[in-house]
Amino acid sequence: MDQTRAIQQRFGPAAGAYAVSAVHRSGPDLEAMLAAGVRSGSERVLDVGCGAGHTALAFAAATSEVVALDLTEAMLDQTGALAQQRGLTNVSLQRGDAAALPFPSGRFDVVTSRLCAHHYAAPQQAVSEAARALAPGGLFLLSDTVAPEDPARDTFLNCFELLRDSSHVRDHRIREWLTMFRAAGLEPELLGEWKIHQEFLPWVERIGTPPDAVAGLRALFDHAPGEVRSAFGIRGQGDYAFDLDLALIAGRRPAA
Fold first, then answer.
1. pTM over 0.70
2. Distances from the Cα of 219 to the Cαs of 48, 119, 163, 212, in angstroms?
3. CA 229/CA 110 separation, integer angstroms
4. CATH number assigned to the domain covering 3-147+167-197+243-252
5. Per-domain boundaries in the chain
6. Segment 165-197, tens digit of pLDDT
């Protein structure tokens, strides 16, 4: 199964759950994205991998135009419904792939990607496409969960992310994202790092993790080495709570 179909099969049925997800609806990273991306209020914004639309709609309330792009029609439907509920008329919906944006070069002042880049099958291509879509001086804002530098902790994180959601590709390390930004011709800056608190049951229920995979996740958490449990703040037994690292990276396209 290709990555596009995998994402659509996983996230189509989950669209309603993501519309009400507290993790996606708000957070300090979203506040920081708005602070960095909104200057005049006249910005043209593209939100890549918009999901249920929380980031797109936050920018729509503060800018002149937002295009919300996603691979999954059910997610776009949620974005449209939420925009209508909030009376936001400056949001347009577009089905599309982050690695092949259906827009001319230089179309946007700001491109955003929030809590979805770990699904990119071709992350360097996606970053390069975001850079291409930016006008000179424009800003790419990427917020996502990130892997630790330690190889064992990196492996543990990406193992349990993939077991929970088969459309997961990789949580990259911050330095890997910085390298990709530079390769795309962007001038990168790390704007912030946070911890995302997760409760085990809502985390697996939101994406519809199958029961056998949930059992595997419990076993993985139960038998994690002490240093790994400490690194991810794993607490409880069975109904766990844990923390994921989140980073916001900005990449400026040089002015002409």
1. yes
2. 34, 24, 11, 11
3. 38
4. 3.40.50.150
5. 3-147+167-197+243-252
6. 888 899 999 999 999 999 999 999 999 999 999
